[in-house]
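Re-running Purine nucleoside phosphorylase to confirm reproducibility after the cluster update. Everything else is unchanged from the original entry.
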Amino acid sequence: MVNEISEHLLLSDNKQLLFFKNNFHLSGITTNLFGDTSYQNLEQEQELNLTLSRSFSAISYHKLEVKHQDEIIVLNKNSYSEANYHQADGLIAFGKNHFKMLLCNTGDCPIVILTDPSRELQAIIHSGWRGCRLSITRKAILKICEVGFEAEDLIATVWPGIDFEHYIFGEKDGANFPGHYFNNRLNLQSVINEQLLRSGLRPEHIQIPNISSASHNYVTGLAFRSFRLRREMERNMVFLFNNACVY
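Result of re-run:
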């Protein structure tokens, strides 16, 4: 069971999963109550990955081991049936009904999810400040459009990561983001939104929930890991699965 907590967000009854409300795919993020999905304890990390994927009947999962760069991997059909880890910052999968879940750990970095109404596309992109500087989201959209998709048909949902108020950022690197850097703070959400729009997505197809890795709601118990704010080494995990719905 899930509970609607805002226009775009649903929270599981056990408060372990926060879902991004979208009619075309199942996606969301684990909360701190789900457990630590970082690579500090590999046995626990793999167990949690399997727990999540099996709870939605996914036959396999594919997880990014992020490099904070702009490499994007397109999964081939031969890799769908086994769990795999990919040293890259983007994963793209084409085709229907392969029952695979895409995963990516995050502390503060935004994670961009791209799908389309035909459910023929799944993409998950790790886009921290380095990825934003390298325009990784735009590069992923170009790869998607190369095989025949139209940018204006794509649906984007963004786990926003750390918010502008809490993201203190150096002036030297901030100069790479004109219009998004003010008072020693960087607005990664607006950077990504601009990249999505410039890539051809419709504004109404872009969903960026009003929540942050700095959030800690003592009433609902909703909390996330933040390396920047609290120097936490633990991680939450963003997930994407096309073949299920929770509402």
